[in-house]
Amino acid sequence: MTIQSRNPATNQAFETYEETSPDALEEALACAEEGTEALRLMGVRERARGLERLADLLEERAEEYGRLASLEMGKTLREAKAEVRKCALACRYYAQEGPGFLADEPVKIDEGSAYVAHLPLGPILAVMPWNFPFWQVFRFAAPALMAANPGLLKHASNVPGCALAIEKVILDAGFPRGSFKTLLIGSKRVEGVIRDPRAKGVTLTGSGPAGAAVAKAAGEEIKPSLLELGGSDPFIVMPSADIGAAVDAAITGRTQNNGQSCIAAKRFIVHDEVYDRFRDAFAEKLGALRLGDPLAEDTDIGPLASASALDEVLEQIEKSVGAGAKLTLGGTRGEVEGCPEGNWFVPGMLEDIPEEAPAFRDEIFAPVALLFRVPSLDAAIELANDSAFGLGSAIFTKDRAEVDHAVRRLEAGATAVNRIVASDPRLPFGGIKTSGYGRELAKDGMMAFVNKKTVTVS
Ligand code: NDP
Questions:
Q1: Cβ 131 under 6 angstroms from ligand 1
Q2: Is this complex's ipTM strictly greater than 0.90?
Q3: What's the whole-model pTM score?
Q4: What angle do CA 135, 136, 139 make, to 5 degrees?
């Protein structure tokens, strides 16, 4: 069996890879088991130095890896290079902070002494999506390597080149054989890896159905799991907000990564007093974005990652319009000169969306803005929380009391005030409700797969 890399700008396959055979998978699992010991023997300081070397290599290869990501999944080269550099940042963060996070923590008890030691669990399976093909993996891999947990990567099937590049750069940085292995396997083979006694946990970033399947197998095997799933983040705009700044943030939030981000602002919930002003300015900027070759400097929006992603968003729009929503801008198949076969989609805007429309409840993983008009902050929060998702949220206002109220009431793993939601290695990242459980990044991300051993001494 083979796996192909296909350029979403042309829909032409440009590279073919052999799937990992059953024998090679068996060898990878055996090797990963040995990898735990090899990482442990390196010691905390040497692992931190390894992460620094890894950061250097990622910075050196940002152009090469950025180009690969653009070619495999269509994001603009500018964003792809920034993504690779952000991976370097995460490596440096854990190199600096990891030794402190992993240090023994003394605890005062009545008799004798006690401390908490932080020990590796062993090989962790990472099931990852294509939308940030480097960052999604590194935000797992950097803390895992620091904590001496080997990584087994099952990446999305459309980014095999990125998956192999990640394994290569980690080994090039001097991490031992067995510390990180890419498995080119389809999703049907994931359960077998979770159930293998040598895999000690699983982390998944992706859709709800994939998360549920992985968590079910992990639960039956009594293994820890972490899920980062989808979102339909609300973006609330109140009358006191700087509307120009809110519009700029809304454009970036909705269209970055060609609109394919779990923490993209998706539902724009705007106070009646400023709705028209916000809508007009937003529509003008959205309509001016340049669709084109992701490798070109002047492209704002590249193709969607796959033909099926394009079909899906077109269907969501058609059904939403059928249910009564108004498509007031774009939202159609796009055209780019010289690339008639690409997955081009014109950024769109839906208004007056009724509850029955798919756009009201479902995640739209493409640059489509959903606009809602509300009479008050309470109405905005009620609408924001009327969603199965709970990943990120944002509010634009200059009123302190409104901020405090929203921060306490919005059902989400993050609230950004007068800015868009973005991940940062120093801050915990994750969702509630059907957006998943557990936290990546910061100290929490490292502790997700660590044995916090209680030690008492008389
Ligand atoms: P999928 O869930 O289809 O794929 C994600 C990964 O899971 C892929 O590696 C895929 O493999 C694998 N997978 C799919 N089905 C199964 C299964 N039944 N058992 C085991 N593994 C499976 O999501 P997409 O690739 O379409 O990514 C987009 C989704 O991810 C969106 O919903 C988005 O919101 C979410 N996401 C969440 C983020 C977060 O941090 N919360 C960040 C980014 C995206 P294969 O490719 O071989 O099918």
A1: yes
A2: yes
A3: 0.97
A4: 75
